[in-house]
From TrEMBL:
Pfam family, one: SLBB
Domain Soluble ligand binding: 79-123
Single GO MF annotation: polysaccharide transmembrane transporter activity
Protein name (database record): SLBB domain-containing protein
InterPro entries, alphabetized: Poly_export, Soluble_ligand-bd
Length: 325
């Protein structure tokens, strides 16, 4: 069998194949173990054209590789831009094209645009989040089995506490399972600022990317362990503590030391990254979400983080249900 015979038996070359960069690897089979003898570059196009010098005879165990053309996967690549731009739609993009170029081609931002709340979604981020979410759920399920086993051997009071912890963990797991995965990548688009093009914030685009730029949200959302989870009209200059009071305050189940804010751009402000008087002293912007987590009954700081993750996911789902990016 020759190179041309092998390729034709495989159905021929696909459109994205690079026939000039073929690679042929020979193996020698001995009594002990197969070993690679040599590899060489082959001109597949010439072999298919009938040139005898290129159409080499294959040996048992040979491996012929026909690589993909450089940049082929970017042919036909497109991204979607929606919302407050002059010309929303689907745009073809070139390898290396950046966000500033897309915004310019889309006619720029409208006066009603609020780029601070832009939602940029990427397929690879979605896949990574999905994998991480599933691994987290599986780990929590394994831990829950251990906790359930401990209940049967505990005293009455301890068993009651453990049972409450099991129910809480189940609620957290259910919330994680229900919450959609966005694939959101936090970005800081400021096309109106000098020096934005080519800066670190001017990210490179990839096939399948999606960007939505909303109008200025006129509200702040507060969710979790408050007496009235709601969207509250945004009032400039007000801090998180003011919005908490507008919601009726925290319930007795609230972990007030773990309150955090999901900013409109997708970043998070928590007690861990606040240097002054805690997150409640932070000024809140339009479109921000204040999350008041539930106290974790049993499980330590690890479960506190898991509970916060679940409530972040629930907050994102609530915003999506309201039609808010």
């Amino acid at each position: 069998m020759k190179i041309s015979d092998l390729i034709r038996s495989a159905g021929g070359l696909v459109r994205g194949a690079n026939p000039l960069g073929g690679d042929l690897t020979h193996y020698a089979t001995t009594a002990e173990t197969p070993r690679q003898v040599a590899s060489q570059t082959v001109d597949v196009s010439s072999a298919l054209a009938g040139e005898k010098s290129a159409d080499l005879t294959l040996r048992d165990g040979d491996v012929l590789t026909v690589p993909e053309r450089t940049g082929w996967r970017n042919v036909g690549a497109s991204v979607t831009i929606r919302g407050e731009v002059a010309r929303p739609g689907v745009y073809g993009v070139q390898l290396g094209e950046r966000l500033s170029s897309l915004l310019e081609r889309a006619g720029g931002l409208l006066p009603t645009a609020y780029p601070q709340a832009a939602v940029f979604e990427r397929i690879s981020v979605y896949e990574s989040q999905q994998k991480g979410r599933q691994e987290l759920i599986e780990r929590l399920e394994r831990e829950s089995v251990v906790v359930k086993a401990a209940v049967s051997t505990a005293g009455i009071e301890e068993a009651a506490l453990q049972q409450a912890a099991i129910e809480q963990r189940q609620r957290i797991l259910d919330a994680l399972r229900r919450a959609p995965i966005s694939g959101r990548l936090v970005i800081h688009p400021h096309p109106e600022q000098k020096g934005f093009a080519g800066s670190a914030d001017d990210i490179e685009l990839r096939a399948g990317d999606s960007l939505k730029i909303p109008k200025v949200p006129g509200f702040v959302l507060i969710v979790g362990q408050v007496y009235n989870s709601n969207a509250i009209t945004f009032t400039p200059g007000k801090k998180a503590s003011w919005y908490l009071s507008q919601s009726g305050g925290a319930t007795r189940l609230a972990n007030t030391g773990a309150i955090f804010i999901i900013r409109a751009n997708g970043s998070v402000t928590s007690g861990r990254n606040e240097m002054s008087y805690g997150v409640l002293s932070s000024e809140v912007g339009p479109g921000d979400t204040i999350v008041v987590p539930e106290k974790v009954i049993v499980g330590g700081s690890g479960w506190k983080d898991v509970a916060a993750t679940a409530q972040m996911a629930e907050a994102a789902a609530l915003l999506g249900a309201m039609g808010i990016p």
